Amino acid sequence: MYGKVPRTVVNLTVDGLLAESAVAVATWVAPFPGRIVNVTAGINVAGTSGTHTFDVNKNGTTIFTNQANRPSTLTTATKTAAAVVPAVTTFAAGDQFSLNVDDVSHASTGGVGATVSLSILPSQLGYY
Questions:
Q1: Which of 13, 60, 72, 110 is buried most deeply by CB count within 10 Å?
Q2: What is the span of the domain harbouring residue 15?
Q3: Within a domain: residue 2?
Q4: How confident is residue 77, by pLDDT bands cut at 50, 70 and 90?
Q5: Burial class of 4 by CB neighbour count within 10 A (0 to 12, 13 to 18, 19+)
């Protein structure tokens, strides 16, 4: 196949004031097998200082085995995190992904609303 390989983007979204949560704040069940190419994060309204750190779990286990690689957004002028590649990239149909807010600096002045995006290649199309 020639040209660009089509990617699918799955957005895990959190509304309202961001707060640390051990409970999943957003979920997605994969309807097809695939591979995660990268993960990005952004907040809608920046807080006054500090960062917000997010974790994505597959079937209850983090996809970021090196926790320092989790997407983290600055709450000042930059409201997005650089794209990161998780350690766990492959998934099967039926795998459940969940989003947790792991760290919110200065929660009383924290950001509002966030989206963590998984850029994926569906394997059923034969792209990997």
A1: 110
A2: 8-125
A3: no
A4: low
A5: exposed
